[in-house]
Amino acid sequence: MRSLAPVLRVAGVLLILPVILLAARFGLAWPPAPQTRVRLASPARPLEHRSAVPVAVAVVYVAGAVARPGLITLPAGSRVAAAVARARPRPEGDLVAVNLAARVEDGEEIVVPVHGAQAAVPRPAKRGRRAPGRSSQRRSVPPSEPVSLNRADARALATVPGIDARVAGRIIAYRETYGPFAAVDDLLDVAGITEGSLARAAPYLQP
Questions:
Q1: What's this model's pTM, rounded to 2 decimal places?
Q2: Which range of residues forms the domain containing residue 74?
Q3: Measuring CA to CA, which residue among 33, 42, 86 is closest to residue 61?
Q4: In the predicted model, what is the mean pLDDT of residues 114-126?
């Protein structure tokens, strides 16, 4: 047995030697090296463009005693003094009459008056013309005797206080449609007759 030991060793070396040569040729390692994961860095995100915040503005119109009348654009919340200064007020401009401390509003018109300027005085009405608001019709004279609701015509009914020509026509139409009035209070069924007008007309009426 001792004589066979060297032979077995040589045979083992001869068997392992081809495996080592093949591994060296094909790049194989024994034992296999542990695999390491390589984490790729994520590409950098492009910076987002920040949209510029719009600035609120106010557009006003400056007129009057200024050297540069016209439209002026100012930041919202500016004072009237800034708008007037941009328009360059003239020496005859009365800045005391303008509230320079007020804040401007978009679409506002700022007028710088002239020193000593007065508001326009309304012209008086011409003679011979009736003042507006007064009726051109003369007031009718109340009847001296009671007027019959069932027999009087529209002209006679229109002389009664509280009854005009239009209501008198309605009374005639109501009478022809529904028959004679049984009492003066039945006038409340006619369009245009109110409690007040009936109170004024009742002393001059009879069925």
A1: 0.35
A2: 57-112
A3: 86
A4: 50
